[in-house]
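Re: the multi-chain job from yesterday

Posting the exact lines I submitted so nobody has to dig through the queue logs.
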Amino acid sequence: MSITILGGGGFLGLKLARRLARDGQVGGRPVEALTLFDLRPPPAPEGAPFPVRSLGGDVSDPAAVAEAVQPGTRVVVHLAAVVSAQAEADFDLGLKVNLHGTLAVLSACRALPSPPRVVFTSSVASFGGGQGAVLPDDARQVPENSYGAQKAMGELLLADASRRGMVDAVSIRLPTVTVRPGRPNKAASSFVSAILREPLLGLPAELPVGEDFAVWICSPRRAVEWLLHAMGMDTAGMGADRGVNPPGMSAKVGDMLAALERVAGPAARALVRRAPDPAVAAIVGGWPAAFTAERARARLGFSEQEPLDELVRAFVEDDLEETRRDRGL
Amino acid sequence: MSITILGGGGFLGLKLARRLARDGQVGGRPVEALTLFDLRPPPAPEGAPFPVRSLGGDVSDPAAVAEAVQPGTRVVVHLAAVVSAQAEADFDLGLKVNLHGTLAVLSACRALPSPPRVVFTSSVASFGGGQGAVLPDDARQVPENSYGAQKAMGELLLADASRRGMVDAVSIRLPTVTVRPGRPNKAASSFVSAILREPLLGLPAELPVGEDFAVWICSPRRAVEWLLHAMGMDTAGMGADRGVNPPGMSAKVGDMLAALERVAGPAARALVRRAPDPAVAAIVGGWPAAFTAERARARLGFSEQEPLDELVRAFVEDDLEETRRDRGL
Ligand SMILES: NC(=O)c1ccc[n+]([C@@H]2O[C@H](COP(=O)([O-])OP(=O)(O)OC[C@H]3O[C@@H](n4cnc5c(N)ncnc54)[C@H](O)[C@@H]3O)[C@@H](O)[C@H]2O)c1
Ligand SMILES: NC(=O)c1ccc[n+]([C@@H]2O[C@H](COP(=O)([O-])OP(=O)(O)OC[C@H]3O[C@@H](n4cnc5c(N)ncnc54)[C@H](O)[C@@H]3O)[C@@H](O)[C@H]2O)c1
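And the result, structure tokens for all chains:
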């Protein structure tokens, strides 16, 4: 099975590529070749038992994507995106990458002799709702940010193309993936990872919302499991609806901090300082904090998010050293 | 107030232009200029008390649309579309006109000194549901046809652009507009108008579904009223949700035929022959047959569909002669 990861140099793309290199297979089928594509050629994962091509290019350039999705490709994981803060700051860039990029992915897939599985990462940000909401599977997407709107448009495009037999798409509406390694950034949701990551690095972090504030999250490990599941699953039962609300976790900030304290002690917990920021609370407070995720759980076989302590420990095991090194700490 | 109608040479565009020429105003504000744009320059309505420009061009060509949406334009009515059967037969044409066309409309609007009202015509075909369904206002759009998917994408784009203050959009999800003048065509919904229009012309018509089959319809008069309302209404209360399910009518085919008989006599009714067509029943049977349309009625001021007898008589008054002439009858 030949696989292409678009956006393969990003947070989840790199993790998925490493996992493929380790496992050598997806859903029992051996990986025969992997293409990684991003703005700059991504590093190949170490020790892969299959050839890896690394390509640089723009996902909104149909020729570049066609080069990355060559005949024989069975699975395209489309992660390339301009994320929320950037798409909000630069509307045209968001449209170019998130909408025209997805159109270019579809074009490349249609040129293949048979329709490939396309795994697309949509987002919780494609919904409104807010703190009180528990969104059912048929909740309407009324996005209140450009990134979410563009993701919802991509979902519609890929669902229609699936109905027509051009591709065989699964769109996973990922929760806020936590703990994200790296540095705090300008994303409104940056604090969700920062309040765990920074103390684990021995650094202070600011909490812009109250401890009762709830967020819909999943771990990077869980996100990678879901991508792998979506790459191999049977889509026959999905019908016209190719969008999946996966079984993430609705976590209160206070519970996340309690898990931090259990894993890393009270000194780590004490590094988090309350610094109310109504602007951040307003943005993140507009995102739904919980989903029922019935269909993903009961019918589509998506696995459950692990408990918070495990989510914190997974960052320590998987990402702490690398983050320390990358940040020169 | 300066107005542009894109797709101004089509069924509803021509009717709207005539109505503007007759009224000379919208929502109490005088029309100062009208631009009609379509693949070929549309005919100017007779007796307009304002200048009319007629332009030919492709709505997916940003330069052509920019020419049609000049500085000073306050309202853009975007009707240009490849309709359902054609968008299903030619996926690329549908994407070009229905998606890239709407992108070009947005580009042209962003070049204006202040954000114009954009009235976009989405469709009942952007929903699934079927005969049993009564769709609430927050029903999710899971289209089962490319036209509906492309319309839903256009809605997302224009809602986001409205949130950003680039345009001020209202997207009306029109029911099947009945009675449509002209000839029977290959659209699966063609019979909905044909079973009234053909007998009124003295011609036979075939009914592919049973008399209990229900359809969500509105008259051309009502569709034009809704467009006029959307051109002038206050959008302040709409929030992020710029989509409107207008108060159409869920009509059983048997009730439509009874109205035909009341208006035109049993001889007209007798021209309709039952000719079951499971393929047509399957397609049209997937569209929702009813909506609650609460928000449009109670909060947004959209007017009610008139009763069926009036819908039939309106065709006789407004369109029968012209249809006869156009078809050489
Ligand atoms: N991480 C999350 O919390 C989260 C939540 C919901 C959805 N998602 C989605 O999951 C996917 C992966 O997320 P991530 O956290 O790994 O994001 P990321 O930003 O780390 O990775 C995205 C990659 O896309 C690449 N990219 C951007 N523009 C490109 C272009 N024009 N051409 C080619 N490549 C381009 C970037 O260089 C980056 O490597 C994205 O689609 C994201 O929108 C992520
Ligand atoms: N009539 C209905 O039952 C109905 C129902 C739901 C939605 N709608 C929507 O309402 C709008 C008007 O409907 P209508 O019945 O008047 O349709 P119509 O087909 O009569 O008119 C559409 C017009 O768009 C023009 N057009 C097509 N491609 C174009 C292009 N590339 N560039 C410029 N113009 C182009 C056509 O020439 C035509 O004149 C459409 O957007 C349609 O999708 C109609």
